């Protein structure tokens, strides 16, 4: 059949496209990139489940992967509103699941993580749900981690036995929907087909036991992205102040592993330049425990797990003009927040009563009025106070931290390269 050429507009510019062509394809041919997650070249018709490809079509939000071009189609791809909508969808996917990138076997190969970096998601504007979802180890070859599943339906649609039977299926409805495995059908897959299923999953929900981590970190699909993208801000070459007026910095470690402070020190000899520029006030680096003056910047490591963390964080907000949440735990709750899907009582019993390190007859849960009270949940710092800047990473590297801190202190804003922007 003869192809009909139609006129379309993308972000105000006129283009021609083949009528009936997918909008994703037509936009790509016209030089416009529309991010996708559930979309997969072999799957037709498109699934349209993730909504990440949302654009405005003739003034209304719609998914680009499911729409075909027509004459007079007017598309907005990169307007500030559309970009922010899309970013919000990615943030929502992070907040809905339990995504602990530093502990995830798919890190570096994960399409959700990649979209987060690409869109500059340094934190989510939504509260994390921390739903309790199962982990399924029953299959010999697949570990199904429901906490990371974004319900994109790729596996349900695409993974079949040689007889054409489905291996994965949706169970339950609405909020409780999960991807189930038909264990009998799964046994009919070859090892290569199991690995393909794991690769087809855009996130780390389907893990091929012993295979997914065969490719080392640092050598994964998105680890060495050639298209380095600067997210925002401008570079600043800071000269040592001649007037000797140093900026005042405070740091603290809440519920974290102190790794971010170690990373602060990893700047090696660069620390000498830093000491020319800044003076530390309250900080575990200097052993100064209390604020003695108002600070220009407060750098917070760790999430909020107990009453003391809560008080310290509030005090930082009062005493510091600018607050930076540094590292995975301060930004999202991080590793300590892994306990959030379990009742606090169970965590305490596991740690103090059932732990193999417990001494005979000394199985007690510590209690004393001077000990800070554990909160039922671990919170990200932004759940408690207003945070001005976020530097995710576990830990972020030293050069990156100091570059951001110096840029904030000396008024240039953040400048983050894709390569430096990490959640793990
Ligand atoms: S790497 Fe991907 S799937 Fe794994 S925790 Fe991070 S975002 Fe989730
Ligand atoms: S398991 Fe993976 S492929 Fe299947 S629906 Fe969940 S995220 Fe998508
Ligand atoms: S890529 Fe279009 S809805 Fe997922």
Q: Can you describe what's shown?
A:
The protein is of the alpha/beta class. Helices cover about 25% and strands about 20% of the residues. It has 12 helices and 17 strands. It has helices at about 25-30, 80-95, 110-120, 155-160, 185, 190-200, 260-265, 270-275, 305-320, 330, 345-355, 400-410; strands at about 5-10, 15-20, 55, 60-65, 75, 135, 140-145, 170, 180, 205-210, 245-255, 280, 295-300, 305, 320-325, 375-380, 390. The protein has a 5-stranded mixed β-sheet with strand order 2-1-5-3-4, sandwiched between helices. It has a 5-stranded parallel β-sheet with strand order 12-11-13-15-17, with helices on both faces. The protein has a 3-stranded antiparallel β-sheet with strand order 6-7-10. Strand 3 (about 55) and strand 4 form a beta hairpin. The longest helix is centred in the first third of the chain and has 17 residues, at about 80-95. The model has no long low-confidence stretch (mean pLDDT about 90). One iron/sulfur cluster binds next to helix 3. One iron/sulfur cluster binds near residues 104, 148 and 204.
Q: What's the short version?
A:
The protein has helices at residues 23-29, 80-96, 111-118, 154-158, 183-187, 191-200, 259-265, 270-277, 307-319, 328-332, 344-353, 398-409, and strands spanning 5-10, 13-18, 54-57, 60-63, 73-76, 135-136, 142-145, 168-171, 178-181, 206-208, 247-253, 278-280, 295-301, 304-306, 320-326, 374-379, 389-391.
